[in-house]
Amino acid sequence: MNGAPVIDFWFDFISPFGYLASLRIDALAARHGAVVRWHPLLIGVTVLKVMGLKPVLDTPLKGDYALRELARYTRRHGVVLARDLRAPPMNPLPAARAFAWLHHHANEQARPFAQAVYDDHWRRGLAMDEAPRLLEAGQRAGVPPALMAQAVSAADAAPLLRDAVAQAMALGVFGSPFFRVGDEPFFGVDKLELVDDWLAAGGW
Amino acid sequence: MNGAPVIDFWFDFISPFGYLASLRIDALAARHGAVVRWHPLLIGVTVLKVMGLKPVLDTPLKGDYALRELARYTRRHGVVLARDLRAPPMNPLPAARAFAWLHHHANEQARPFAQAVYDDHWRRGLAMDEAPRLLEAGQRAGVPPALMAQAVSAADAAPLLRDAVAQAMALGVFGSPFFRVGDEPFFGVDKLELVDDWLAAGGW
Asked: Any CB–CB contact under 8 A between B172 and chain A?
């Protein structure tokens, strides 16, 4: 136990705002000597099924606004997204299951794998919903190939992901990106400055 | 024409986040030599009918989160809300109609009236859905009594409000608070820092 603050960070691979948060969360944490724990989330479960909402881009008025907000954010932070945001999202299950499996069985491999998948999907514009692409991403991330092969095919990957999503919801987590610092919840990439202030102040 | 930047600010009297924004928007604008135009909005129309969403507090997971966010914000900014947030909202129509009427017929009276209604409702915890309370608020705000009496009873108040909400939606406005700087849209009180940055930078 070293008393370092812990940031829990939930993300969905199909979430562009989750991708944007993934690019900054570790550096932000490092400035405060904090540790980040990355967790998978499925907004198709939380937002669509449990909350009963439509996808943001299919919501009148809010869809157009979200695209404006995304464009403003990416211009400011110098990020280029290769994917067509109006195209249907990829199936996030294979990548999220593989991530959940690594997270459980070989935790130190999970984050580099997630970063590689995110990079391939949002910066390079690749669909990351089939095993060959995930194996390649794992290779780029330095995950041992035999381990990565297990992650994309293991029978316990699906229940591990289900459990992770259920645990997230039990903590009140619903969106991507979502952060908790201790038990304080923060939703949205535009909360990163507030998380920064919160860590600097030790809360208020 | 003096070239001062213009901030358009939409709010609903039943929105606590709209109230919180109303406390800061004028001072923020003044720092940039900007002008604020206050506009009425009905989230019961935009969010519930047009967007097809549930009230935030009735949305699973998000309702609890919104209360946490509100508590965090009010602690930080030293604001105390007297209303029970879990209680049903008041009917915002009488106040919003009166505001829309003043906005159209006696514009310089509209903002002080809105500030008085917001103060009575959220800081003092009063229901502001009947004419006597609105007349009192107008008096506190320095609105001439004869004018205020017209505002709460005029036949054109309802269509003026309807038109204002329709115009807002035509601009992509849907929530409270909502801001536009030129044609750049910002949703939510937690965007005030971004609006500040945007005005300082002249956009990006």
From this structure: yes
